[in-house]
UniProtKB/TrEMBL annotation:
InterPro entries: Aminotrans_V_dom, GDC-P_C, GDC_P, PyrdxlP-dep_Trfase, PyrdxlP-dep_Trfase_major, PyrdxlP-dep_Trfase_small. Its EC number is 1.4.4.2. The glycine cleavage system catalyzes the degradation of glycine. The P protein binds the alpha-amino group of glycine through its pyridoxal phosphate cofactor; CO(2) is released and the remaining methylamine moiety is then transferred to the lipoamide cofactor of the H protein. Residues 173-302 form the Aminotransferase class V domain. It catalyses: N(6)-[(R)-lipoyl]-L-lysyl-[glycine-cleavage complex H protein] + glycine + H(+) = N(6)-[(R)-S(8)-aminomethyldihydrolipoyl]-L-lysyl-[glycine-cleavage complex H protein] + CO2. This is glycine dehydrogenase (aminomethyl-transferring). One of its GO terms (cellular component) is cytosol. The keyword Oxidoreductase applies. One of its GO terms (biological process) is glycine decarboxylation via glycine cleavage system. It comes from Propylenella binzhouense.
Amino acid sequence: MLNRDDRPTRPEPATRRRETFTGNRALQLEEPLLFEVGRTDVTGVDIDVPEHAGDRLGRHRRKAPIGLPALSEPEALRHYVRLSQKNYAIDSGLYPLGSCTMKHNPRLNEAAARLPGFADLHPLAPQATVQGALELIHELGRWLIEITGMHSVAMSPKAGAHGELCGMMAIKAAVRARGEDRTIVLVPESAHGTNPATAALLGFTVVAVPAREDGTVAAAEVRRLAGEHEGRIAAIMLTNPNTCGLFEPEVCEIAAAVHAAGGYFYCDGANLNAILGKVKPGALGVDAMHINLHKTFSTPHGGGGPGAGPVVLSEALAPHAPLPAILRGTDGGYRLVEHAEDEAALAPFGRMTAFHGQMGMFVRAYAWMLSHGADGMRQAAEDAVLNANYVRAGVQDLMSVPYPAHPAMHEALFDDGFLDGTGVTTLDFAKAMIDEGFHPMTVYFPLVVHGAMLVEPTESESRASLDVFVATLRDLAMAAKRGQTERFKDAPRFAPRRRLDETRAARQPVLKWSPPEPIEDAAE
């Protein structure tokens, strides 16, 4: 019988191809779990055992050892470096996730965010000592107001969905301030999933607005629904450009219809990067819109945080913006308003976070704005739209386009019609892209398109990189049509792990590691 101190006892998973003694494939190292590297009975550091001073844990005191593995510094460093080498990132290559805008994060922005005075700020520092930081946040907000043509901005929301919640909470506060009980929010069927979720969270009833055959929303349908629910429409939540990658041609008429019904127009600003410097949402009738700084202004996605999702507001909603707020005094200084009673003109719905936002993201976004200028930001939007249409034009003879009547905006949408009869699914196609060295595009979204494949190349990509990407899509499409199903059903073949059962992993997650059973050494 072997144990873990003699040699690895974990049986070889069926998904691993062991072609070498170690399982390594040249510089692609087979990396075990931390629990398989370290030992729970030792530690990589020497710490004197303190005298017992008591604690206040009560019944929450741990009843068993924590069971975490201990590693030396080289072991820990190697483990995480090896894991990082298995990640695909925007610094590795083209990242075509539609609706996520994975674009280059300029290193100039990173350097600015690390400057003393920004990187080492404490949220409880006296305001007199952080005037430069307050000025930067205020100036960033002023630029966002100018870019969008809105009246004011709330800077504290931490991400897109958080900002979406902020905008809808401001709308709810405005409705209540008018003494009205409006309970209906109109949401297009093609909306981001967070839209109906946010409305429902706030107690609204969601009424779906169907998409037309061309993938857009009809103002006539909005007017019909407004009439059907007369006096109860609180808002519409519309994404423009929409999730199908199309600009809503009747957006002004839609805004007018909602306003005539007494409601507000919330615009999901996730796709502002497509119209930056070209269209001011305020001129379209928008009352509230969140802005994903990572999508439009190149700050990192953050892998679940920290993010930033400022919300721009119309004059009607501005008084209801959350605290804290930054105001500029007559002396040229800046102050952080923490309490509503400190500013009579404010009627905030409350606060979204303990502090004011994510300073590092503010600095990065502001640096991107300054380095681009008005003309550069406009060109970024134009290049993003150009690149998306370049991809669509390059493959539309082989891959089916569900809405060919309109040009694409920042992303190109395909459906699985071109795979009919091939035995290859959208998921198979996406997995085959991994073998070709690309992260797959967004699949099965938006839900209004069967087998959707949503590609967003962003403005970061050169024509050369797009040509390789387009050529790869064409090769895969032709392989599917030629019946080379094994190339797809077996994919990915060259990744560190083969295809996973993602449905089972989501429904039956294994959240706790257990030691494997020891295995007996095979007889000679």
